[in-house]
Every structure is written in structure tokens, then in C-alpha cells.
Write a structure and sequence with these properties.
Largest sheet: 5 strands, mixed
Radius of gyration: 19 Å
Shape: globular
Number of domains: 1
Number of strands: 11
Oligomer: single chain
Helix content: 25-40%
């Protein structure tokens, strides 16, 4: 099942149960689909916080909701799993190493279920206004829309975004509503994309920049193009064209509905390594999800 179809299916399932429900499951190693459970976030003890919201240009707003850490503690996956893949309605996937308390504290992710457009005593509503994506100078033709919840992450940091890229790229700014949490073994998950020793540098670029929006062969995110299906990206763009595509962004891109952010810090050698990795996954395929005994 493609990431977009998966996100749509999960969103529909959640809406049939309750607007605040999300799906939760642990990634399996066999051909059978993993069992999914629905969690209604409204059943968790909520708290009220005033937070600076980067998706609204840093404006401070009052929110009612639950900390992501509380959600993860409510849905423990069992032993041997160390990474939570947060699936969003628009197809984004943001990984969180949930067993590292320092990471969870530094991220400080808050899952808002309602907001107040004044003081908290003026009441809360469970609808959120659309948010323009980063770089929209005028009107974003494809703004972020929220249904049932929105994540508020005041920090621009993510543990897997490269230090250079974090100065200009914040994956949380592009996320809309959380629809699912998928628990995986981190080594097994990223092992799927380590197709060869020669392309490890490109795989690292994928992990530090691309994985939040893009997948390959219907594995991973689906906000942007799949890197292989239906047409391999390495055939569409040679490394020179890929460099221009990743490093620069037209000023009116958001107004035209384009979503790709610019990675101004990326270098030509890094893009060449990324292109070689794209060619490898386009011709060799991915490795199986295989959990090693601990």
C-alpha cells in the first residue's frame, strides 16, 4: 500500500471512530498486515499550554492537548522496538527515537486537540486555521490543513536532520495532522535503504534530508515523489539537475503550489552521492526489513 493511500485509509478509519483518533501498530516482518489499534487522543488526560507555534510564524497561542511522550507511553510496542514513525495526513513521516528521554524532552512535541483564539477562559475550539508552508511570500496555494489535531513543536531541531541542514530545514513545519504511529526497529528500518557500501553517503543524505517527505518503492513517506515508482528519479534528473533542484527554490514556488524546500547548504559531492544512491535503489531495489537478534 502506498504512503498516500495508507495515510488516506488511516485518516478515514480515524474519522469513522472519532476525529481525534489515530492508528497505532508495530511493523511486522512477514507478509501479513500488522494489527492496527485505534487510540482516541481525547481519552488521555489533557493539559492547557500557551506555546509559540512556528507554523503560525512563532505566534503564541493557547492549546489544549497532550504531550507526544504521553501518547507514546500509552501505546507501548513491547521490547525490541526503538523508533516511532509518526504518519501525517499529507503523507509525511517523521521518525522519533522514543526510547531516548533526552530526545523527547528536547523535541517537546505537543499534540494539540483544540485551540483558543483568545485567553483560555474564552473557550476552546477543535478547528485549526490553515498554515502557509515555509517560503510562501504571498499566498500559499496548498496550505497545510489540520483535521482533528495539529502538532506544536517550538524547537526547529530534529535528531536526524544534519547539522548543516537544520539551519534552514525544519520537518515539523511541513507536518499537518497526525494519523498514525508505526513502531519499528530502527536498524531494520534504515537497513532497507542501505543498498550497498558504495552508496552509504547517499543513504545518509536521504536520512538527514529526504526521508521526511519521500519514500522509495512505496516504503516510507509519501508527501513528495516516490523516488522509484512509477518512474525512477535518477532517470528524470542527472546529478547536475538534481543539484539545482535541491539547492535552490524559485521565489514564487509556494504560490505556484510547489512544496520542495531549498537545501542551500548541500554540496555538489553530496548531491552526486545522493544521485548514485537513487540509481542504486532504482535498479537494485531495497533490502528486506530484517530485525537482528539482540
Amino acid at each position: 500500500m502506498s504512503p498516500r493511500v495508507l495515510a488516506a485509509t488511516l485518516a478515514l478509519s480515524a474519522s469513522l471512530a472519532h476525529a481525534s483518533s489515530i492508528a497505532v501498530w508495530t511493523h511486522g516482518t512477514g507478509p501479513a498486515l500488522p494489527a492496527k489499534a485505534l487510540l482516541d487522543l481525547e481519552t488521555l488526560p489533557s493539559e492547557v499550554k500557551e506555546l509559540a507555534d512556528p507554523q503560525y510564524d512563532g505566534e503564541r497561542r493557547w492549546y489544549r492537548g497532550v504531550a507526544l511522550q504521553a501518547v507514546l507511553e500509552r501505546t507501548p510496542p513491547g521490547p525490541g522496538v526503538d523508533l516511532a514513525l509518526l504518519h501525517f495526513q499529507n503523507g509525511m513521516v517523521i521518525p522519533v527515537p522514543f526510547q531516548d528521554p533526552a530526545v523527547l524532552k528536547k523535541l517537546g512535541v505537543f499534540v494539540a486537540l483544540a485551540t483558543s483564539y483568545g485567553a483560555p477562559d474564552s473557550g476552546f475550539v477543535d478547528t485549526f486555521e490553515p498554515a502557509a508552508k515555509p517560503g510562501a511570500q504571498k499566498t500559499d496555494r496548498r496550505p497545510l490543513r489540520f483535521d482533528g489535531n495539529k502538532l506544536v513543536v517550538s524547537s526547529a531541531w530534529h535528531p536526524m536532520v544534519t547539522a548543516k541542514a537544520s539551519a534552514t530545514f525544519n520537518p515539523w513545519r511541513f507536518a499537518d495532522s497526525l494519523v498514525a504511529i508505526e513502531y519499528v526497529d530502527e536498524a531494520a528500518w534504515y537497513g532497507q535503504f542501505e543498498v550497498s557500501q558504495a552508496t552509504r553517503a547517499g543513504a545518509a543524505s536521504f536520512r538527514g534530508r529526504c526521508q521526511f517527505c519521500h519514500g522509495a518503492r512505496k516504503v516510507g513517506a509519501g508527501y513528495g515523489w516516490d523516488f522509484v515508482e512509477p518512474y525512477p528519479l535518477y532517470k528524470h534528473r542527472q546529478s547536475g539537475s538534481l543539484l539545482l533542484h535541491t539547492k535552490y527554490r524559485e521565489l514564487d514556488a509556494a504560490e505556484r503550489g510547489l512544496m520542495m524546500p531549498a537545501f542551500a547548504e548541500i554540496t555538489a559531492p553530496e548531491v552526486e552521492g545522493l544521485w548514485q544512491w537513487l540509481e542504486a535503489i532504482g535498479t537494485q531495489g531495497l533490502k528486506p526489513y530484517r530485525v537482528k537478534p539482540r
